[in-house]
Amino acid sequence: MKSYFLNFLIPIFVFVQISFAQNQNNYEPELQHCILLDSYLMNKDVTNLNSILHPNLSLGHSNGWIETKESLLENLPTSKIKYHAFLYHGTPEVHFQNEEIKSIRRNLTAKGRLNEKEFEVDLKILEVWILANENWQLLSRQSVEVDFDS
């Protein structure tokens, strides 16, 4: 009986471990893109941000404001917004991916200061990344405000 039980459990355990490892590897590149984007936004690093933003970027903020690559790179260093932290909720979910495009959903809490007033906002985000010039670039991003506590 013990042998039968172990023969049944060991393959299941191995399958779960392999599946988990594959899922972790699948998410790793997407997480790196997201972390770089967030880091560049927090540090107002327009030089590096420029390299990961597609020329046709459409970036929709949760307040309805829409920016292009040009306006984001122009406004970010001079704007009155300063991000302090991005707190991640879960792992990015890849909804579509092929050799040239990735669609990623993720959740985070953004903390910062806008016009000298501190803020904290929970966001659900949809990002579309495209391979251009041998580099993954953000083509589109839309965030909506949610309440993770409810």
From TrEMBL:
Any one Pfam family match given in the protein's UniProt record, by short name: DUF4440
Name of the protein this chain belongs to: DUF4440 domain-containing protein
UniProt keyword ATP-binding, yes or no: no
Gene3D superfamilies referenced in this protein's UniProt entry, alphabetically: 3.10.450.50
Domain DUF4440 residue range list: 40-138
Originating species: Moheibacter stercoris
Keyword vocabulary terms for this entry: Signal
Signal peptide bounds: 1-21
InterPro entries: DUF4440, NTF2-like_dom_sf
